């Protein structure tokens, strides 16, 4: 049976690069996990084994490290833009580059009061502890003419210990869940947002500030929404981002409902007045949705696991 070659790409995945910027005695860290995927005129390498159009994946790895030195790492998005532009414009057979980046944040270690007097500061300028709240992610795609920049985060665990209800839902003969009028609402946020930036260097977003602001609006919406469902909270989070950040046209969330069930303490002669819960890790409800600026077509993949 005849066959044809379909969509294909290649590159070097998960290049771990740590860039230290030394500002006198004060050091700054950028810690990235960079994956490069290239596509274009690659039929021969699949069909005949000819490597004439194939840039080695080892070269893409070396480029990541060389660019960390040559350009520095101002932000994950800016670094990805440098890489994507380089691969597409420097190699004629390469028509499209996709750069995916995870960023791991670090914060400075505070010193004891006695030691801070010795070093003249309440924090050591070269000692850090890895932040554990979330992992920042980004995907930059360039085809020689147009850009698509998607940023986001994953594994951000949040909880409201009250101001959440769940009742009035459909019930059938298999429904055992009791209606809740004061419950814990907790989730582990995975979110992606797409920028409307095209190619105007003058209008390029300030990537670091944008991330900080999106995260702030997301958390504020989660905290300030009196929730009748996780779906309602998700929509408020996305809407707050779209309405507050003009550089963003689309937000997609995947929110697992980290269920907390009241423990029955009556067998022990105790009343559980919304105080003691069993935290269940699985199975869990999974709520996913996209929030768009009016008139904008969705482009973030429904399945975000590979972003």
UniProtKB/TrEMBL annotation:
Reaction(s) the record says it catalyses: urate + O2 + H2O = 5-hydroxyisourate + H2O2
Protein name, as recorded: Uricase
Family: Belongs to the uricase family.
NCBIfam families from the UniProt entry: urate_oxi (TIGR03383)
InterPro entries linked: Uricase (IPR002042)
Role summary: Catalyzes the oxidation of uric acid to 5-hydroxyisourate, which is further processed to form (S)-allantoin.
Keyword GTP-binding: no
Superkingdom assignment: Bacteria
EC number: 1.7.3.3
Keyword vocabulary terms for this entry: Oxidoreductase, Purine metabolism
Enzyme class, broadest EC rank: oxidoreductase
The organism of origin for this protein: Streptomyces lichenis
Associated pathway: Purine metabolism; urate degradation; (S)-allantoin from urate: step 1/3
